[in-house]
Known about the structure:
This protein is α/β, with parallel strands linked by helices. It is built from 17 helices and twelve strands. This is F-box domain-containing protein.
Amino acid sequence: xxxxxxxxxxxxxxxxxxxxxxxxxxxxxxxxxxxxxxxxxxxxxxxxxxxxxxxxxxxxxxxxxxxxxxxxxxxxxxxxxxxxxxxxxxxxxxxxxxxxxxxxxxxxxxxxxxxxxxxxxxxxxxxxxxxxxxxxxxxxxxxxxxxxxxxxxxxxxxxxxxxxxxxxxxxxxxxxxxxxxxxxxxxxxxxxxxxxxxxxxxxxxxxxxxxxxxxxxxxxxxxxxxxxxxxxxxxxxxxxxxxxxxxxxxxxxxxxxxxxxxxxxxxxxxxxxxxxxxxxxxxxxxxxxxxxxxxxxxxxxxxxxxxxxxxxxxxxxxxxxxxxxxxxxxxxxxxxxxxxxxxxxxxxxxxxxxxxxxxxxxxxxxxxxxxxxxxxxxxxxxxxxxxxxxxxxxxxxxxxxxxxxxxxxxxxxxxxxxxxxxxxxxxxxxxxxxxxxxxxxxxxxxxxxxxxxxxxxxxxxxxxxxxxxxxxxxxx
Length: 476
């Protein structure tokens, strides 16, 4: 109630007690519309919403809509680091010894138990569930198996989106996998899901059990051993579905090389909204082998593409891998609205451009392969990282770069471009961005282009998902 009181006091001169007391002749009740606006303004403050939900039936209904619309069950490294500090437990990239933190797993198990009932009111508002980092094979939590899976799924009638992130697919308990595929979803997202254990069985199961009503799928950064890419051609019929991808990347696409090659498959009904070109961590021989397939696939889905992401240093920088971008056929990407390219390293001063030059060359190579007369292209977003050791060094890198040459070249390449370039610069989270923005604005002519809306300058903290193996914001 204290949180609710403070919220009201900011907006109203009258005390909270007056509004919550029985209405008398000389008192005015709090208008329901204003109460709703207060709750809506606190949509990201879970603590305040929980307090508000106890105030009245009306606040319960309104608060519940914000509390349970989007649910996330996430294992966090911060909890693990606290355990490491306390018990000095060794950590490796893929294995945790004596890992006992199971709060996220336990919370999700409790959530399923709550839904295993004839009726649950809160679940009616749930529209999306995000599960991040659960089901690790070294955790000690054992999921309770005795659940009525059809009933649990039926108690989530408005759930439309399921996101699975950083999960080992074979470690998902069978009854929970059954629950995932029982849901009547509109969108399913797999981000950094690990298929290294029995990739063929896991991937075939995924496509075989997808509900026919599903409208779109996202596959991003799926994990598998490069030398063990499964041949799925024997299961061709399972993959002959009409598929709409919200997002797809090159690494995940490799798993589908034997079933979605337009050269082999006559009736390939696949469309993609956002495609992420990422450096493929494999040998030169394998890269040369698979690049023609990717080129044919992009030619096939080209007319459906709305956004193209070109990663120049993801998941790592490898100058020898950049030229493969120049072999891709983008001529049919006639409806692309935005192109995002990054992250380009500005090291012209400190390292003589050892990374910047090949990155810029690859960026221009990709852009030159897009249709220059496309009326749909609205913006090209370029992300940069200055590598100076000090803030002064970073400012010097930003001031030295030939920004106006980039803008002019883009305008020549794409006459219909509405926003020539959106410069995004990464900085440490919490760092003062102002000196870097001012450094860009002091470039002769840059401020004028910004005022005209031709150029947009943005500072992005490193906490953003773009530079890591995580799915970037589609509207970024």
